[in-house]
């Protein structure tokens, strides 16, 4: 779990935001402000973090932080944003389109191309802030946010350095299943496509949208896959749960995931650097390994010994190790 003083600072920041206060300082001295920006006609809501020694006469390197599938900005994305702000960066953790405090209809619609565009719009916003050095902007994503970040950074040259934490290829997972957790077959995909088509027809004529849950509503048994147990423990308990992270999922958006290949243009990230951080015991490690293999230099795959996928969301000592590595990486390439 995150260190007590870190947790306290995040909770204090959240209380300030809930009260509508801007520029409030948390226990570490980092200031947090609620901000808004646009992805076309969708208003995105984010938390902007500034370093404790912030000087508004200066320009700072900045980092956008994309949350996991089904997550919101107050969870792991906020942890990394706050701690990187402690390291001297302006950081922006925001709710993706269709989630949390951000707009977008239908709700809970996980459209990868829109998630990628969210990141580009976050870069738009940061690039035009007077306190941000537009030539020194990086991007970070956790879980599916890592895959989306790689996709965005591959084609957006304004991202001078990119990193993924426990990177998850949502497209591959939809097409092939998650290795050693749940299988997917070509016949299964065909059945899903048929089902999606029928559901779209129903919804187009006004029937109730199909909303499913990403995770079971009751704690999985000991015989359930460890990945599922760990996901439940993070999202559905006091450890990482948040009222805005409902776990709801618009079923028909599965089609958008099946079409998505986040590493399709990864070679164009070079010569800008890519850092991939993953746990040695993560069942998603192979996604980071695949991205690393496909990327061109400069690139690095950094393995945190003993960590599983969700350990890197908030558990110590893993988060501190990851943040220290991220800080070194971004200071090297953004300052």
Task: Give an account of the 3D structure.
With 335 residues, this protein is an alpha/beta fold. It has a single domain, classed as Alpha/Beta hydrolase fold, catalytic domain (Rossmann fold). 38% of the residues lie in helices and 21% in strands. It has helices at residues 4-18, 76-86, 112-127, 144-155, 170-176, 186-204, 226-235, 254-258, 285-294, 311-314, 318-334, and strands at 24-25, 31-39, 42-50, 60-66, 90-94, 132-142, 159-165, 177-178, 182-183, 211-213, 248-250, 274-279, 299-304. Strand 2 (31-39) and strand 3 form a beta hairpin. The model is unreliable at 3-21 (pLDDT under 50).
Keywords:
single chain, 335 residues, alpha/beta, Rossmann fold, 9-stranded mixed beta sheet, globular, disordered N terminus
Present the secondary structure layout:
Elements: H1 4-18, E1 24-25, E2 31-39, E3 42-50, E4 60-66, H2 76-86, E5 90-94, H3 112-127, E6 132-142, H4 144-155, E7 159-165, H5 170-176, E8 177-178, E9 182-183, H6 186-204, E10 211-213, H7 226-235, E11 248-250, H8 254-258, E12 274-279, H9 285-294, E13 299-304, H10 311-314, H11 318-334
Parallel strand pairs: 4-5, 4-6, 6-7, 7-12, 12-13
Antiparallel strand pairs: 1-2, 2-3, 3-5, 8-9, 10-11
Please give a quick description of this structure.
By secondary structure, the protein is α/β, with parallel strands linked by helices. It has helices spanning 4-18, 76-86, 112-127, 144-155, 170-176, 186-204, 226-235, 254-258, 285-294, 311-314, 318-334; strands at residues 24-25, 31-39, 42-50, 60-66, 90-94, 132-142, 159-165, 177-178, 182-183, 211-213, 248-250, 274-279, 299-304.
């Amino acid at each position: 779990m995150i260190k007590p003083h870190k947790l306290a600072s995040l909770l204090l920041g959240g209380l300030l935001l809930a009260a509508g206060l801007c520029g409030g300082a948390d226990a570490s001295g980092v200031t947090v402000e609620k901000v808004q920006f646009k992805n076309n006609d969708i208003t995105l809501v984010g938390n902007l973090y500034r370093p404790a020694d912030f000087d508004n006469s200066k320009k700072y390197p900045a980092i956008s932080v994309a949350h996991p599938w089904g997550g919101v900005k107050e969870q792991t994305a906020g942890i990394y944003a706050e701690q990187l702000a402690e390291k001297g960066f302006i950081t922006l953790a925001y709710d993706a389109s269709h989630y949390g405090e951000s707009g977008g209809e239908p709700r809970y619609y996980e459209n990868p191309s829109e998630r990628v565009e969210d990141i580009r719009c976050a870069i738009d916003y940061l690039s035009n802030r007077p306190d941000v050095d537009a030539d020194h902007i990086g991007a970070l994503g956790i879980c599916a946010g890592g895959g989306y970040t790689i996709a965005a950074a591959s084609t957006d040259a304004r991202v001078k350095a990119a990193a993924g934490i426990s990177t998850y290829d949502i497209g591959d997972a939809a097409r092939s299943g998650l290795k050693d957790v749940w299988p997917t077959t070509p016949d299964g995909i065909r059945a899903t496509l048929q089902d999606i088509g029928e559901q779209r027809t129903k919804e187009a004529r006004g029937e109730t949208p199909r909303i499913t849950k990403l995770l079971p509503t009751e704690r999985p048994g000991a015989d359930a896959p460890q990945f599922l147990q760990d996901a439940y423990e993070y999202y559905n308990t006091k450890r990482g749960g948040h009222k805005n992270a409902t776990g709801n999922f618009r079923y028909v958006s599965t089609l958008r995931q099946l079409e998505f290949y986040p590493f399709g243009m990864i070679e164009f990230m070079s010569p800008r650097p890519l850092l991939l951080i993953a746990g040695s015991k993560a069942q998603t490690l192979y996604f980071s390994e695949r991205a690393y293999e496909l990327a061109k230099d400069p690139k690095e795959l950094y393995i945190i010994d003993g960590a599983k996928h969700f350990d890197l969301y908030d558990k110590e000592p893993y988060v501190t190790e990851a943040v220290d590595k991220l800080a070194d990486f971004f200071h090297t390439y953004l300052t």
